Amino acid sequence: MSSDEAPTPEDTSRAELLPEEIAAGSDDPIGQAEAILAESLERTQNPEAEIRRTAEDATGGSVDPR
Q1: For residues 62, 58, 7 and 18, what is the CA-based torsion angle, rounded to 10 degrees?
Q2: Is 63 exposed, middle or buried (0-12, 13-18, 19+ CB in 10 A)?
Q3: What is the pTM of this model?
Q4: Do residues 58 and 28 touch, judged by C-beta distance below 8 A?
Q5: Better-scored residue on pLDDT, 2 or 26
Q6: Is 49 within 8 Å of 43 (Cβ atoms)?
Q7: CB–CB of 25/17 below 8 Å?
Q8: Rounded to an integer, what is the distance from CA 20 to the centroid of its chain?
């Protein structure tokens, strides 16, 4: 979805964070959301493609091993 398109019900069906997501927090929630949406769109448009990423790719930096 580009910024000039109206959101569909699928785009907004899970707009709220789960309690465990709130507890985990994020250094860049907007960037994280954009990355998740881009990956989701890629999977939707190309369901046969295999997407492999590391945790560092997904977070854009190092991962706290807590």
Answers
A1: -70
A2: exposed
A3: 0.41
A4: no
A5: 26
A6: yes
A7: no
A8: 15
What is d(CA 8, CA 21) in angstroms, rounded to the nearest whole number?
Answer: 23
Buried b (16+ CB within 10 A) or exposed e, 16-51: eeeeeeeeeeeeeeeeeeebeeeeeeeeeeeeeeee
What contacts 27, CB < 8 A, 6 or more positions away?
Answer: 61
Residue 61: CB atoms within 10 Å: 11
Residue 63 has pLDDT above 60, yes or no: no
* Model pLDDT for residues 4-61, shown as the tens digit of each residue: 677 676 666 666 777 887 888 888 888 888 888 988 888 888 878 776 666 676 666 6
